[in-house]
Amino acid sequence: MTTTTRDLPLLLLGSGTDPASERGVDCPGELPAASDPALVERARAAKAALGGQVFVLGHHYQRDEVIQFADVTGDSFKLAQQAAARPDAPYVVFCGVHFMAESADILTAAHQRVILPDLGAGCSMADMATFDQVEDCWDVLEDAGVADDVVPVTYMNSSADIKAFVGRHGGVVCTSSNAKRALDWAYGKGKKVLFLPDQHLGRNTAVLQMGLSLDDCVVYSPHRRGGGLTPQQLRDAKMILWRGHCSVHGRFSLDSVNEVRERVPGVHVLVHPECRHEVVTAADQIGSTEYIIKTIEAAEPGSSWAIGTELNLVRRLANAHPDKNVMFLDKTVCYCSTMNRIDLPHLVLSLESLARGEVQNVIQVDEETAHYARVALDQMLALP
Ligand code: SF4
């Protein structure tokens, strides 16, 4: 089964179903039962049978049962680069979410097929900015007479359509590690930035690293006429933030920070920049997933860390560093539900299908979209 890029509208819970956005609800082939005690052995055997034909990528937020079969782990951009560096592997099984598999397809060679074990593994943040909505936004910026001053910047966590839009309009992709460098470059080119789709990463980078004020930022809401902004607000703003957020990192609150500081004396609070502004300003350190991992690796034995990022990663860090007191920042459980759709049964189904010569759940970005998305990705790689 091959998918192409398209709009992925979010449905309100309980408001019906949309087969166009809920891809993968029907699993091709027979999904093994989660209770099958032979799953680990089946995955091992299928992977061994495939040998160098398959390269398995595992995002940091994946479950342990899946991560154990990853040839490499990392954040989305590192994984896409790793896949591109292995052109000898015709099949890349991406244990992550849809936009990550799209980026891998864009960056890998034409003969490589990128497979997402469950097509329902999307990203609620990426789905908050659809192509039509962003085109409408650009019309609003044109009507306000500011579009020529605006450089679009999109976070890696966006669909290929949005990356291509940004490439067509002279912009750049960024990650949570290089967002400041991307904004430095964008402000050297234009007077304003349209930051997609994560308002928190955009605001936190602009205010905490670029010296902009909160008043320099406005939030464009795709569900309101004119984005909910007046033309004058758009003319005055330096940073136009898309109203999108990560449903995992958006959960952490100032109360979580205050509560853990009271409960654990001397605790260091370490959060991802996708968290809300009041959370990152109350934290001790802010950084990408890779930064969080390196910080915990380098931490003093006996030190205490409350971490504001996805729970699978925090638990893995806690298990890997029993000499340090590593805990989850929030009191309630907080997995990324779409990431968690990739489980051992889906991985077994993908690997066994490949071993039989059946290629299922291929993510393939159309050529034109891939071309312009690559323009924006290449611009990121060329950032000074
Ligand atoms: S953690 Fe957030 S940004 Fe990452 S895939 Fe899940 S919803 Fe998307």
Automatic annotation (TrEMBL):
Coarsely, its chief localization is: cytoplasm
Q: Which residues bind [4Fe-4S] cluster?
A: C123, C246, C336
Q: Which UniProt keywords apply?
A: 4Fe-4S, Cytoplasm, Iron, Iron-sulfur, Metal-binding, Pyridine nucleotide biosynthesis, Transferase
Which terms in the Gene Ontology molecular function aspect does this entry carry? Answer: 4 iron, 4 sulfur cluster binding; metal ion binding; quinolinate synthetase A activity
- Can you state which reaction this protein catalyses? iminosuccinate + dihydroxyacetone phosphate = quinolinate + phosphate + 2 H2O + H(+)
Q: Does the keyword Iron apply?
A: yes
Q: Which domain of life is it from?
A: Bacteria
Co-factor note (free text):
Binds 1 [4Fe-4S] cluster per subunit.
Q: Which cofactor does it need?
A: [4Fe-4S] cluster
Cell compartment(s), UniProt: Cytoplasm
- What Gene3D superfamilies does this protein's entry cite? NadA-like
Region span, Disordered: 1-24
Enzyme class, spelled out: transferase
SUPFAM superfamilies linked to this entry: NadA-like
What Enzyme Commission number(s) does the record list for this chain?
Answer: 2.5.1.72
- Feature: compositional bias, Low complexity: 1-19
Residues the entry annotates as binding iminosuccinate: H59, S76, Y155, M156, N157, S176, H272, P273, E274, T289
Identify one Gene Ontology CC term for this UniProt entry.
cytosol
**Cross-referenced NCBIfam families:** nadA, PRK09375.2-2, PRK09375.2-4
Q: What does this protein do?
A: Catalyzes the condensation of iminoaspartate with dihydroxyacetone phosphate to form quinolinate.
Q: What is this protein called?
A: Quinolinate synthase
Source organism of this protein record: Actinomadura livida
